[in-house]
């Protein structure tokens, strides 16, 4: 870079702070480790805003819903019921108890739960800061991240299955350059150069691993070399070949 080139503009630290404020604990800790994000004060401020705004919207939504439904009930009674039917105690009780039903239906609405959760997260942020000066992530962000991660894992599993195919027995081959080759449609992560693989009464070391076509799909090929007599085993894994 020449002296005339302008310096690169770094991302403001406040951006990392704000991002860390809404992330779950694991992702928040990673931002703090990599970029020095400090979300605690921002979490406190956001908690106060969420508590005030969520509580205000919750109360306003509840009152508006109750007023609208009460008017609808009153209009229905006025238009469709004979006022004389309200002389009976049971009918009057049903009419007066409609308010409880309205509140119950409001409490079960998804919007009500969303507004309630907004205020609840605000309380959680304030409590977390007061108790141990910690931050609290947003539940919806946590949910979105975890759903996205689960979807990516599921897609990766489907891609691997399409690449390596269905479960099928391993193949044991004898090829030049190795004493035995085990061709498997699934990986064997416990097989490495530091352990010894016992197959029957023989002992092998892994000398190579690659991928190759196999029965219309792909498979892992583990190239094995038989251990020298008297070799020291630092770890042992037993392998049962197909058919015993």
Give your account of this protein's structure.
Among the domains are: 40-134; 171-238. A 6-stranded mixed sheet has the order 1-2-5-4-3-6. A hairpin with a 2-residue loop joins strand 4 (202-214) and strand 5 (217-226). The chain is elongated. It has helices at 13-22, 25-35, 40-80, 89-96, 98-107, 110-132, 139-164; strands spanning 171-173, 180-184, 196-199, 202-214, 217-226, 236-238. The model has no long low-confidence stretch (mean pLDDT 86). It contains 7 helices and 6 strands; from the N terminus they run H-H-H-H-H-H-H-E-E-E-E-E-E. Helix content is 53%, strand content 16%. The longest helix has 41 residues, at 40-80. With 244 residues, the protein is of the alpha+beta class. Helix 1 (13-22) crosses helix 3.
Summarize the structure.
The protein has 244 residues and is an alpha+beta fold. The chain contains seven helices and six strands, in the order αααααααββββββ.
């Amino acid at each position: 870079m020449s002296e005339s080139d302008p310096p690169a503009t770094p991302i403001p630290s406040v951006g990392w702070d704000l991002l860390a404020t809404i992330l779950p604990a694991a992702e928040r800790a990673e931002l703090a480790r990599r970029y020095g994000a400090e979300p605690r004060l921002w979490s406190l401020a956001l908690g106060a805003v969420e508590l005030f705004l969520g509580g205000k919207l919750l109360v306003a939504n509840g009152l508006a819903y109750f007023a609208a439904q009460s008017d609808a009930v009153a209009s229905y009674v006025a238009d469709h019921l004979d006022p004389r039917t309200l002389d009976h105690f049971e009918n009057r009780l049903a009419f007066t108890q409609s308010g409880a039903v309205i509140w119950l239906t409001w409490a079960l609405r998804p919007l009500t739960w969303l507004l309630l959760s907004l205020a609840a997260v605000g309380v959680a942020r304030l409590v977390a800061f007061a108790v141990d000066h910690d931050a609290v992530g947003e539940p919806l962000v946590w949910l979105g991240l975890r759903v996205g991660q689960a979807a990516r894992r599921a897609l990766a599993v489907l891609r691997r299955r399409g690449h390596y195919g269905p479960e099928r027995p391993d193949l044991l081959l004898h090829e030049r350059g190795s004493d035995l080759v085990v061709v498997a449609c699934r990986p064997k992560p416990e097989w490495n150069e530091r352990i010894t693989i016992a197959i029957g009464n023989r002992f092998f070391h892994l000398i190579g691993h690659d991928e190759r076509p196999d029965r219309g799909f792909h498979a892992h090929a583990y190239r094995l070399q038989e251990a020298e007599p008297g070799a020291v085993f630092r770890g042992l894994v037993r392998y049962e070949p197909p058919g015993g």
